[in-house]
Design brief:
It is built from 8 helices and 14 strands. The chain has 331 residues and is of the alpha+beta class. It is globular and about 60 Å long. The termini are far apart.
């Protein structure tokens, strides 16, 4: 009988990375993705110094006056990189639920290291995913830090996709050619201190599911608020543990697996103590998305020979575009 998890498990992936016990890691990941769609990973090997540097420099950026940060705002309606101010987004709109705007601000980058002479990156179907990034001048070195983190976390995502492949009874490298030109986005999110009472139903981030293959989050260690809706329809907190990442699968991976893996609703609730309300909260979020032309259709291992997939095949790029069309943003 399949075990159903009601809380978010913590999984050490070091034995996958060193090759000593790959299958047990894959088994635990499979259980988490089927039950709750969230897991916390330790043993990932990412430098503590890098994580601290991203955190420190991001806080310096968000501490700038708003008029300084707005210099790095997107340059047009279709531009998806740069700074977004508090209240410019309402994630619950992606589910068709109208709420007040979310109480967060962000800075986003996407892929940056690609051949400008290769038309693959500039075809109409590539959309905005390889557009020019907007790089902040302050703090000094922030551009380099963000680039380094983007590369390092892309590698973590690649390794997780290989774990996913084993968990789904596929060849370990099954997804490699589908993510080698991925269209992922790195967003540093700042949830400012709440010095006034939020509007009714207004949260730091409203209930939503993510769009892509997976999301990899580095949470501030002395914070709280990230909650997951489990299969019992209970909102449960995600454990915050030093030197770990929170990983959740998105709608694309649920579709790929014929909904055997769940893309779970989650939210960032408002702080419930005066001490926590007086503090900013920082999250470093990597939204992993396969190559825009990778076709997503039901995996053979997720259906019987006679069974059809629930979803029509779709490219990663079209899937993401459809999701963005449902999300309403406000100025």
């Amino acid at each position: 009988m399949e075990k159903t998890l009601t809380g978010v498990p913590i999984i050490d992936i070091s034995t996958y990375l060193d090759g000593t016990d790959k299958l047990s890691v894959a088994q635990k990941v499979n259980e988490a993705c089927r039950s709750i769609g969230f897991l916390v990973i330790s043993g990932h090997g990412v430098s503590k110094d890098l994580l601290k540097r991203v955190d420190t420099e991001s806080r310096l950026f968000f501490a700038l006056p708003k008029n300084e940060k707005m210099k790095y705002a997107p340059k047009g309606k279709d531009h998806v990189r740069g700074y977004a101010s508090v209240g410019s987004e309402a994630l619950s709109y992606s589910l068709g639920i109208e709420t007040p705007p979310d109480l967060k601000e962000s800075f986003s980058i996407g892929p940056y290291d690609f051949d400008p002479g290769n038309d693959y990156y500039f075809r109409p179907e590539a959309g905005p995913h390889f557009q020019e990034n907007i790089w902040p001048d302050y703090p000094p070195g922030y551009k380099k830090t963000l680039k380094t983190y983007f590369d390092v976390i892309s590698d973590v995502a690649c390794k997780m996709m290989r774990i996913f492949a084993l968990a789904l009874d596929l060849d370990e490298n099954y997804f490699d050619h589908k993510i080698d030109r991925h269209i992922s986005m790195l967003r540093v999110l700042n949830y400012p201190a709440q010095l006034s009472t939020p509007a009714p139903n207004q949260k730091r981030a409203g209930a939503h599911s993510d769009y892509g293959s997976m999301t990899i989050v580095k949470l501030q260690e002395d914070s709280s608020g990230l909650e997951v809706l489990n299969k019992n329809k209970e909102w449960v907190p995600v454990p915050i543990i030093p030197d770990t990442f929170v990983i959740n699968i998105g709608d694309l991976m649920a579709q790929w697996t014929n909904d055997q893996w769940v893309s779970t609703l989650h939210r960032v609730s408002n702080p419930d103590t005066e001490e926590m309300r007086s503090k900013d909260r920082l999250s470093i979020v990597f939204f992993h998305q396969p190559n825009y032309d990778s076709v997503v259709e039901c995996l053979d291992t997720c259906k019987s020979e006679e069974e059809k997939g629930k979803y029509q095949p779709i490219t990663s790029g079209d899937h993401l575009r459809n999701k963005f069309l449902r999300q309403t943003t406000m100025s």
